[in-house]
Design brief:
Blueprint: H1 6-14, E1 21-26, H2 29-42, H3 46-52, E2 53-57, H4 63-70, E3 80-85, E4 97-98, E5 101-102, H5 104-108, E6 116-123, H6 132-140, E7 142-146, H7 154-164, E8 168-169, H8 171-181, H9 185-198, E9 204-205, H10 207-214, H11 222-230, H12 234-246, H13 253-273, H14 278-285, H15 292-301, H16 304-321, H17 330-343
Parallel strand pairs: 1-6, 1-7, 2-3, 3-6, 8-9
Antiparallel strand pairs: 4-5
Length: 345
C-alpha cells in the first residue's frame, strides 16, 4: 500500500475510516501534532472522552503500560483513543525483544483490538523499514512519515494553506511570509490564522497585509536579495545585506545561504531548458511561472562557468559560516560571499 499523504490521512479520518494504530514519525513536528490533535478532538464526542481518551508521554511510560492501555475496551463508545506523545523517548520501542521476551507492543500488533485507536507520536526519528515492529504496524495500521518542507517549497505550501481556508494570497506575499518566518510550519499556521482573523472580509491577501500584520519588509528580504544578485545590482544587494546585519536573529546567515544555493542551482537548470516553453521550464526547475523572469534575467547575466563557480563559492562559505576554517562573523562572510558571486572572483 502506498504511503498516505497528510491530506489523504485527514480525509480518511473525516470519513471515519479508522485503523488500530497510527505511527506518526519524522523530522517535521507540525504534521505529527496536527494528525494527533485531529484524532483527539474528533473521534470521540465530549461525553465519550471522559472514559475513553488517554494521553501519555514517552518519558513517563513503557511498552508494557502502553499495551495494557491498548487492551482496554471502550465504555459506552465504539472506540477508545490512546495517544502516546514523545514516544521517541520510550526505551526499546523498535526492538524485537525486550529482556529476552518478545516486544509487548509487537506481540499486541499481531492481533490488535479494533476498538482501540493507538496513536504513537515519534518525533525527530523514524523506524527502519527492516524492523519487525515496522512491518507489524504497516500490516494493521498506518505509518506516516512527516518530512520537512524545503525552504524553497514553502511559498507554494503557504498558497495552498490559504486556498484550503477559502482565501487566496499573492505569490509575492507568500514568498515574503516564507522568507520572514522560515521553515517553522507551526509559526506559519499561527500567522495565517492571525491574518484570517484580521482580514476576514478580504478575498486576497497581499504584500501590504503581510507588511502591516506580520511586520516584515517587502524591500529587505531574501527574495529581494536574490533579485538584486540576479540582476547584478550590487548597490541594492549591499543595502539588503546591511539590513540583515542590523537584525541577525531575524535574518540568519544559514537561511540566506540555502536560498542562494537553491537559486543558482535553478538558474543552471534554466540554462539547460531555456529552449522550452515557459510552462515547461517552470515544471522542470520547480519554479512558479510568475517568478520565472528572475531566473531568465540571471541566466543572461551569468555565464555557465560563473554559475558553477558560484555553487562552489556558496558551499565554501556554508562551511565557513559553520566555523570550519573561519572564525569570522557570519554576516561579514555573507557580504564577502555575495561580492565574489557577483564579480566572479
Amino acid at each position: 500500500m502506498a504511503a498516505l499523504t497528510y491530506e489523504q490521512l485527514i480525509e480518511e479520518l473525516k470519513k471515519q475510516i479508522y485503523k488500530p494504530i497510527y505511527f506518526l514519525m519524522g523530522e517535521e513536528p507540525y504534521f505529527i501534532d496536527a494528525i494527533s490533535d485531529y484524532i483527539e478532538e474528533n473521534v470521540l464526542n465530549e461525553a465519550e472522552k471522559s472514559f475513553n481518551l488517554t494521553v501519555a508521554y514517552g518519558k513517563d511510560t513503557d511498552l508494557a503500560s502502553i499495551v495494557s492501555l491498548a487492551k482496554r475496551y471502550p465504555m459506552m463508545s465504539n472506540y477508545q483513543v490512546v495517544i502516546i506523545k514523545e514516544a521517541q523517548n520510550i526505551k526499546n520501542l523498535d526492538a524485537s525483544e525486550v529482556g529476552k521476551k518478545i516486544n509487548p507492543l509487537l506481540s499486541y500488533l499481531q492481533q490488535p483490538l479494533s476498538s482501540t485507536i493507538l496513536v504513537v507520536c515519534y518525533k525527530g526519528k523514524k523506524l527502519e523499514k527492516n524492523r519487525k515492529i515496522y512491518k507489524a504496524i504497516e500490516k494493521c495500521g498506518v505509518i506516516f512519515e512527516s518530512k520537512k518542507i524545503y525552504e524553497t517549497k514553502l511559498p507554494a505550501w503557504i498558497i495552498n494553506q490559504f486556498k484550503l481556508r477559502g482565501k487566496t494570497i499573492e505569490p509575492k506575499a507568500a514568498n515574503l511570509m516564507a522568507d520572514f518566518i522560515g521553515n517553522n510550519l507551526s509559526s506559519i499556521i499561527n500567522e495565517i490564522n492571525k491574518l484570517l482573523i484580521f482580514l476576514e472580509n478580504e478575498k486576497e491577501i497581499n504584500v501590504a497585509h503581510i507588511e502591516k500584520l506580520i511586520g516584515v519588509s517587502k524591500d529587505f528580504n531574501n527574495t529581494e536579495l536574490l533579485k538584486a544578485i540576479g540582476t547584478k545590482n550590487i548597490t541594492q544587494a549591499n543595502r539588503i545585506l546591511l539590513y540583515f546585519q542590523s537584525d541577525p536573529r531575524q535574518h540568519p546567515v544559514q537561511q540566506t545561504i540555502v536560498w542562494l544555493f537553491e537559486y543558482f542551482s535553478k538558474v543552471i537548470l534554466y540554462k539547460d531548458f531555456q529552449n522550452l516553453s515557459d510552462n515547461e521550464i517552470s515544471s522542470k526547475i520547480g519554479v512558479p511561472p510568475y517568478f520565472l523572469d528572475d531566473y531568465k534575467n540571471a541566466a543572461k547575466l551569468y555565464p555557465r562557468n560563473q554559475l558553477i563557480q558560484n555553487i562552489h563559492i556558496i558551499r565554501e562559505y556554508d562551511m565557513k559560516s559553520k566555523g570550519v576554517d573561519s572564525v569570522a562573523d557570519g554576516h561579514e562572510l555573507l557580504k564577502e560571499m555575495v561580492y565574489k558571486i557577483m564579480y566572479g572572483i
